[in-house]
Structure prediction request, 490 residues.
Amino acid sequence: MAALDLGSNSFHLIIARVVDGSLQIIDREREMVRLGGGLDEKNMLSAEAMERAMDCLTRFGQLLRNMPQGTVRITGTNTLRKARNAHELIEHAEQALGHPVDIIAGVEEARLIYLGVAHSLSDSGGQRLVVDIGGGSTELILGEGFTPNTMESLHMGCVSFSQRFFPNGDITRKKLNKARLAALQEMEPVITRYRRLGWQQAIGTSGTIRAVLSVVTAMGLCDDGISAAALSQLVDKLADYSHVDKLDLPGLSQERAPVFVGGAMVLLGVFEGLRIDQMTVSDGALREGLLYDLLGRIRDEDVRTRTVASLLSRYQVDQVQAERVADTTSGFLAQLSEIWSLADDNLGHLLNWAAQLHEIGMDISHHHYQKHGAYILNNADMPGFSSQEQAVMASLVLAQRRKYPQAEFDALPASWQKPLSRLSVLLRLAVVLHRGRSDDPLPDIRLNVTKRQLSLSFPAGWLDEHALTQADLEQEAAYLTKAGYTLKFK
Prediction:
């Protein structure tokens, strides 16, 4: 299995194999791409940043392209979340790597980071605070064992703070203090809650924190991890330098130097805001979390299943009806998956979950409930799901009934449009057939397709006995005609 983290500062690749239920790392690659440094004030990635990223991905593709589908997770984080032209890089990445790229929300990034850390350290019991400072965001997670309980993603990172407060590389005490205060301001909304919840151990991870550990250790400021006193002394030392190019700190690599000061000030804000005295540093991070999450999916321990169950409960969905529609939708997919090129396990999962959640919007209002449901799925924090997966399910839920939302599908990436259009038709048919919410099972229904013409075959006389279903199908045929599909039934 492999995991690739397309971060704001670096791209990290890790390849592992499963040995006796545990992951054995067999290869690692890391390149400092500085993607976040190419993001302008209009949130557009520069041509230079795109070229650096594409060159790196082409090289990584040599290792990943021939790996089986479903064994590789590739995720984009803060910069790709923000970049308005991210789709250009994603399309290139998917071609170069041979696997899909997921853009994950900050809270999902936090969950995966915690998973990576939890699997990399022994559990001493009690609650842990995990801190990850990336290029564009900082994740704070409180959890116990392998379970994250409280997660936040803050808009500050080593690249963004370096650009904001040290744009020309100049270092002054005034700039250092401005960066420190800005970090504390970003921390302000979470400080009280995190202090109240408390923790027994603080753990840091990823490049900035490992770089700080390397420097304070080499300077003899701290023997074990990072102490608040050592960090404060390091920041005082930074004020002795007038420019990042002149940094001459033991243990600091040249490639890390341009963003080190910004990252150190973020870490100081975290230490001061949360009153951290001592921090242990972990080698596990997002990419390890991705691997363990992927291992769970392969073993049918998919966190996304728990997320869907939680949403069903939270929004008081009629779960009996949800299962009826999901079962019928899955049955239709099995009949057409080869003909319609839908034989993709993840597409099947997403269709099934969308079918289960198709009435989630009713908890807000029955009127236009498909629109409310789509809004929830587009905007909710959904552990395990990427932003694209949430968008797929939201589009399916929106398209489940009444007027076909062709404009919504046209706005999606070209590679998604045909499969999602086809999946939506299967869901619509299942919703129509279960509109009566009857406990009586449906008869054996055959669904056939020729290009964009669908044919439903019922047992002899069944439609005559179910006049309302026949009327619903006639109405659905009219809706589908406007979407370019022909529906016939007998």
